[in-house]
TrEMBL record:
The gene is LOC100285052. The keyword Ion transport does not apply. Residues 124-143 have a biased composition (Pro residues). Residues 106-119 have a biased composition (Low complexity). Residues 91-174 are annotated as: Disordered. GO terms for cellular component: ribonucleoprotein complex. It comes from Zea mays. Residues 151-171 have a biased composition (Basic residues). The keyword RNA-binding applies. One of its GO terms (molecular function) is RNA binding. Residues 181-277 form the RRM domain. Keywords: RNA-binding. This is RNA recognition motif 2 family protein.
Length: 334
């Protein structure tokens, strides 16, 4: 027998459904409990439970609630809210794409986006102050210039002399108040020859001189050089011409500048600017010391004495400026 504390009452069932309450123990005497097995108690039957609720319907099968006009937000149906709350535990599974095709005809409509704000909700910071002399912005490193090494001559090994390529010179645009007379004609078709360019200049001078009253300044030119590539025998697209007066220079610029060449479907537009060398004397002095590696005088500069004015036949001589390089051919040995 095991002693039982007298401080807690003992409930020992002797009959089914009714516990036996022992009398209070006497002071100073232990109380014993019998460990004999007792029959199990009889329980009341469990009441009938209600059937479980049906599963929630998918979100796309429930009619959508129209947007609230006050807040501009879309109110989701209660079924969607319940399904979203139930799926918080399996967030990874919820983020997976739905097995239902998003391109199906019965897919839920796309919620409209909220309207963009009409004003910027944040304040802009004031512009940064300009850098001071002590904290100036770092200057970018200078760009490297492309250098060209000198080629060795006569089989000798030359030193690595590097020459930097100079930047292209700025164009000298036409000024109607200027007294300059020498032009650089650009964007010439590459198939043009010197004879064809002379024909165009003669035709221009002839038309302009017919408009001039007797005693007026005539349109004339006294120097022409069409730059040609001696290997391809085609011009490089530009030429130099000198008019005899500023009035004649203005007429030529008005006639040629912006002119679209109608020559073999050429898409070039003529551009006329001032040349760096001005006047016949400076042009002749510059090209007189030049040597041209070609086999014909047709590619050399020419000067006209007297100047050409478009009369036919042209009066005056055409003098070549500069000299050609003559190459001696080895004689055939018999």
């Amino acid at each position: 027998m095991a002693p039982l504390s007298h401080t807690a009452p003992a409930y020992i069932p002797t009959k089914r459904g009714a516990p036996w309450i022992p009398p209070p123990p006497a002071s100073g005497l232990p109380t014993y409990i019998s460990w004999m097995p007792t029959p199990p108690p009889r329980f009341l039957p469990w009441p009938h439970l209600a059937p479980p609720p049906p599963p929630p319907l998918p979100c796309w099968s429930v009619p959508q609630v129209p947007c609230a006009t006050a807040t501009g937000m879309v109110q989701r149906p209660l079924a969607c809210v319940a399904s979203a709350a139930a799926g918080n535990a399996n967030e990874a599974a919820t983020n997976q794409p739905s097995p239902r095709s998003v391109l199906a005809v019965t897919s839920p409509p796309i919620s409209p986006t909220t309207s963009l704000p009409t004003s910027f909700p944040y304040r802009l910071a004031p512009p940064a102050p300009p850098p001071t002399a002590g904290h100036a912005a770092p200057t970018p490193p200078p760009t490297a210039k492309r250098s060209v090494a000198a080629r060795p001559r006569h089989g000798r090994r030359s030193s690595r002399v590097r020459r930097t390529r100079s930047a292209p010179k700025p164009r000298r645009l036409f000024d109607p108040t200027s007294e300059l007379t020498s032009f650089m004609i650009r964007n010439i078709p590459n198939d043009f020859t010197r004879a064809r360019l002379i024909h165009i200049l003669d035709q221009h001078c002839s038309i302009e001189n017919e408009k001039i009253a007797p005693g007026g300044v005539r349109s004339q030119y006294d120097f022409l050089y069409l730059v040609v590539d001696f290997r391809s025998r085609a011009n490089k697209g530009y030429a130099f011409v000198n008019m005899t007066s500023p009035e004649a220079a203005r007429r030529l610029w008005t006639h040629l500048h912006g002119h679209l060449w109608a020559f073999k479907s050429s898409a070039k537009t003529c551009a006329v600017d001032y040349a760096d060398l001005q006047g016949q004397d400076n042009l002749v002095s510059h090209f007189s010391g030049s040597r041209f590696d070609c086999d014909t005088d047709e590619y050399l500069p020419v000067r006209f004495e007297p100047p050409r004015d478009g009369t036919r036949p042209a009066e005056g001589a055409m003098n070549v400026v500069g000299r050609r390089i003559t190459r001696s051919r080895p004689s055939d040995e018999n």
